[in-house]
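residues and backbone:
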Amino acid sequence: MKVGGKKQDKGPTKYAFLPWLLMGLGAFSNIIQGKTSNPWLAGLGLLAFNSLYISVVWSSFNPRLRDSRRPLIALGLLTAVTFAIALGFRGNWFLFFPLLSLASGTVRALRGKKLAVWLIALSGAAGYFSGWHEGSGPGGAFGVGYGTFLSGTVTATVLSLFDTIQELNATRQELARSAVEKERLRFSRDLHDLLGHTLSVVVVKAEAVRRLAPRNLEAALGQAADIEAVGRQALTEIREAVTGYREGSLTTELDKARSVLEAAGIEPVVRQAGPPLPTQAEALLGWVVRESVTNAVRHSRATRCEIDVNTGTDRVRLTITDDGRGPVSSGAAAPHGLARLRDRVPVHGGATSGTERPGAMDSGRCGPVGGTGLKGLAERLAAAGGTLHSGPDGRRGFRVTAELPVGTGDMADAEELTR
């Protein structure tokens, strides 16, 4: 797999084990030169040491075995063989202690404090047996002991750095996948918001053209011109969505809402109070108006829709209410949109509540209300420190309420969510 044009590092290859094997064959010189009293027994000991030595290193590098007990078991056997051949043949055979230490540094289960304690004990034993026990003095004891401790420490440090690099590579890949997924979700969300609203407007105005054409051609032509304008605007917005640079506007969406509601035969009532809003608050609330009005036109069968915007000193509250259908009948299951919304929004630090609009799956209508649209809006508002609540409004009707902080600090993180 490639990330950023570079291949992922798969770890050491089989050729990386060649130096480890060669280091374990050094004692063959003692046997060949006849410096060992019992060459056959020494050869068997050397064969056992190298077999266990390679087993420890191989299992420690193998992704399937390195976290199992096999490296520890092999290391225990290697320790026993090392002490046996070192104390049995002495001399240069004490140099197997640094190799034992080196193999110990590869075992993951010994990393950290356990490895430090083990290396100190092993170095002390190696120094004692090679120095004072053999009579080579403090210099010989220090040389073997220091070499033993250093071999394991350096090996463990290098391999820990290698593991860190592997983790960083994996993290980089995960970040790349996350960025791709984030962009895919953004585009899916924007496409839903744009096309869902635009197609609803086109359908409503096309129906108006069909109704008006027989008796009022001029009005029908006006509606047809609106369809053309909506289509052109949709093309522009889709291009902006593709490039990722798209901002909504509450003022623009309120004007569009009036036109769409009137064309659908729904009386619009729009009220605004308070000072102007920051750009990002305008953009977020503009999407709430667009989604809510689209749902009202498509599903509510309402005759009146009220939109109230109240801006205070620190928060703005948007309420959209229609007089359409009443609450869900008892026993009816809420569709998946707001159910998922209730589960996911608290993760972002915000809140949402309510039920889906009744009758969201009516024949001839377009899917469940509040599914992708309200869920996406709730996530955007929650990330900006706001809330989104929706549900039946008394016996009849449906209410959507959105609140946002209007301070510049609270809205700073919302900028990317509206693009």
About this structure: The domain at 247-418 is CATH 3.30.565.10 (Heat Shock Protein 90). The longest strand covers residues 304-311. Strands lie at 2-3, 6-7, 267-273, 304-311, 315-322, 351-353, 387-392, 398-405. The chain has two domains: 11-174, 247-418.
